[in-house]
Amino acid sequence: MKDKYGMHRIVGNLSNNIYVVERGNELVVFDPGMPSDLRRVRDRIKSLGRSPEEVSSIVLTHFHVDHAGAARALKDESGARVYIHVDDSPYLRGEKYMPSVYNAGFQGRLLMLLPGIVERYSGVPPVEADVAFDDGDVLPVLGGLEVLHSPGHTPGSSCFLWRDRGVLFTGDAIQNWGLLLVLPEGGFSYDLALAGRSAAAVVDALSDRDYTDLCPGHGPVVRGSGREMMAGFGARLRRMGKA
Ligand SMILES: [Zn+2]
Fold this sequence. Notes:
binds zinc ion
């Protein structure tokens, strides 16, 4: 799928969204996905008449295998600069360990019954980020990507506002079930209460900003009505006492 902004969405093996964005010579990959998604990413880039070696930036919304798992291989191939929040960077370089599943939520409790299985499939090949960013930074990517730190799913989970295009990349901090924006599942989140507060804070921080589209880490892209959906989501979080 390609849209008018040169954005291409690839759905990975865990229904994770991978976004390839072209802007002139720039070739940016948001969340390259699982190690096993790499072939799909390379094929898509080739289908655009480009080479995977041309990837200039790899922007990570957070440290999880279905988002960051292919980062090292893609960096090795392209020399692209890797961006991740400073609070997730020690996990990405393999210096700190983050469990894949927590004993919370339905999926978490279920997966806790299968010790070892999840860990076997959740290893992220370590890579040193070139840029460990923080809240409020504007990354020199696609003319300016504004960072909104939204911790809770992981410590460094972050959203990015592509200011030129009014597109908000939310990673797993805010997911899309189709008609409804939702928080991530508790079993895969280190602090779900914090994730709720963070999501509401992102809605508030962008309340007077111009954006229309949402690119979530899971679920379909929202076109046109992104800001309205976010406002509704923020109100729902407050009603539920999660903000
Ligand atoms: Zn995640």
